[in-house]
Structure formats: structure tokens, C-alpha cells
Amino acid sequence: MEEDEVIRYPIEDSIDLHTFRPNEVKDLLNDYLEAASGKGFDEVRIIHGKGAGVLRRTVHAVLKSHPMVISFSEAGPEAGGWGATIAVLRKSSGRAVNGE
Fold first, then answer.
1. Which of 49, 43, 41 lies closest to 81 in space, CA to CA?
2. Is 60 exposed, middle or buried (0-12, 13-18, 19+ CB in 10 A)?
3. Checking CA distances to 94, which of 31, 34, 43, 59 falls within 20 to 30 Å?
4. How far apart are CA 77 and CA 45, in angstroms?
């Protein structure tokens, strides 16, 4: 795979960052949040794992500065606990109403 090759990833209400390289996470997460808001998701779950917390800190830094994020918090125990973060998104002005 080439360095600049575009990878298509389905936009769902959650994303698992385990399959991505750490240096890809910032750009990927920024793009994902824009796309998720554009698809109409009010909140998304970002799975970053528990580990040493490096990826979690990167995710939280992106969420703090992203214009589409209203707030974020640790996921509940049923959704991954401190291994995942729930982000509440703003409504996208370009989003269709009622799926139209």
C-alpha cells in the first residue's frame, strides 16, 4: 500500500482505532467526526483501548478542539468503560432532515 493511498472506512456510530497506526489517528479522527456528523449521528463511540492511555489522550486532544464536538466522556461499562469515549456531536448544517 502506498503512503498516500486513500482507505475507505464505513461511517458508523462507532470507530475502533486499534487497526490504525498511531500517526494516522489525528487525521482519521478529524475526518471521521466530520463524516459522522454529516451522516446524522448525534453521538459516536471511539474505541481506543485501555493500555497506557496514550491513544486515549490523543483522542481527547482531538475532541477538545474539534468544532463538531459538543462534549465527550468515558463510555459506560457496557460500552467499553475507560477503553472508549463517547462524543456528542453538533448538528451539521449540511445534513438532510428525516433522511431526505
1. 49
2. middle
3. 59
4. 13
Task: Name which of 26, 33, 21 is nearest 89 in CA terms.
Answer: 33
In this structure, the number of other CB atoms found within 10 A of the CB of residue 20 comes to 16
Amino acid identity of residue 1, one-letter, is M
pTM above 0.70, yes or no: yes
* Spans of all domains in the chain: 14-89
C-alpha cell at position 85:
469515549
Structure confidence by residue, pLDDT tens digits, 68-92: 999 999 999 999 999 999 999 998 7
Fold category of 14-89 in CATH: Ribosomal Protein S8; Chain: A, domain 1 (3.30.1370)
